[in-house]
Amino acid sequence: MDTQELQRALALHRQGQLQQAESIYRKLAQMDARHFGVAHMLGLALLQQGKAVDAAQQLQHALSLNPDSAEALGHLGDALKSAGQSDAALLAYQAKLRQRPDDLETLFQCGLALHSLHRYEEAVACHEAALRLRPDGPRILFSCANALVELGRFDEAIARFDRCIEVQPDFDGARRNRGILKLLLGDLAGGWPDYEHRRPKPADREIKPVAPDWMGEDLRGRSLLVSDATGLGDAIQFIRYLPIIAAGGARVSFLGNRRLFRLFRPLASSIEFLSELPADRQFDFHCKLLSLPALCGTRMDTIPAPIPYLQAEPDRVDKWAARIGDHGFRIGISWKGNPSRTIDAGRSVPLSEFAPIARLPGVRLISLQKRYGLEQLQALPEGMQVESPGDDLDEGEDAFVDSAALMQSLDLVISSDTSTLHVAGALGRPAYLALKIVPEWRWFLNREDTAWYPSVRLFRQPRRDDWRSVFENMAAAIAQKLPTG
Length: 485
Prior knowledge:
This protein has 485 residues and is an alpha/beta fold. The protein has three domains: 193 residues, Serine Threonine Protein Phosphatase 5, Tetratricopeptide repeat (Alpha Horseshoe), CATH 1.25.40.10; 101 residues, Rossmann fold; 166 residues, Glycogen Phosphorylase B (Rossmann fold). It has 22 helices and nine strands. The strands form two sheets. A five-stranded parallel sheet has the order 6-5-7-8-9, sandwiched between helices. It has a four-stranded parallel sheet with strand order 3-2-1-4, with helices on one face. The model has no long low-confidence stretch (mean pLDDT 93).
């Protein structure tokens, strides 16, 4: 082994010159493939450059040379975590903890891995062990609080968020998540201020010179730019505030996803829809769409619900009515959200869970699903059928215009917590919503109705991951609507 070259690589590594260090490590590895130090440091250099998969392979090789290296085990866990392999990362962290039970960072990372695997009780135990070593670690307090929320231990979670913010007042993530929890618990007055601590988007910086933030000033005769960079469901839910503000005398412009503009057309003729910020255009004020509930002082008893605030296009209603016919009890279904969003964890429903409803006499299940989860149509339980309305449903550039029209000919819409449900609710169509045991804040707790969408009935998991009970309860409710005899 060329020790001089190894020392040069290590020096470059310490200076942050990772590519140069990697190059030398690779040359040295070709000279001696069984040198643990070279293999380990090459894996670390790859990890620090974001090459997680290559790093994991290299670190596994290093551990084959020295299985007892706690440092290599920790780095392997980090690489596997970055590669999205939480289960394998957990095993690496646990192996390191067997050697170093009081390693603070490894306890913390172990807790995060357990959380990502939905093993929340164990995640809390890991974080509690880490807090015994560092009682005021803000990251640990924050992560422990998040796991406690998933377990429904809300008072303990609030206490952890409070302590985290006390220790680090500028921890925006803790403020935001505390706000979300307060909103979930129905404390809208207490939740909105914290909820405003959302992570800025790059577009927010572009808007700053164009208009100052609206903080509730009188808008009569003034212009307000409302921007949105959230999911489609959020936009559909909170767009209801724009006509209210416009009716108060403001000139309202909405900067958002142009795919929704056609669906939003019925809102108010005075609202301007923009897909990009106009050059050299000035506005009196700006706010984010999701800030409007707070700025409008929304409380549980003042949630605006002028249902319907969206309407389907008549010619499309006729088209889809003719397409699906009027026989049977027609139920449109949607079961899966965007899996790339972390918020989707646990809220999508396996299509097979709809089987108790499919078995009801005269019921027709009609798919409203787009893009995600369509492969499940090829593996339905025996006797279960789901109709496709056609590949042309919402195939154009405009989102949901066909789904909205099709819903007018349905007796019911059943959905997991996806944007499809928001369309049905905004149209005032009867709908059932399947909710995980700790849902998004907007659905609150312990109620079957929602003031956001009066036509929607909520069906909640009685236990974590128990979709069977949810759909059996739905089937029983639908059976009461079906004709007898």
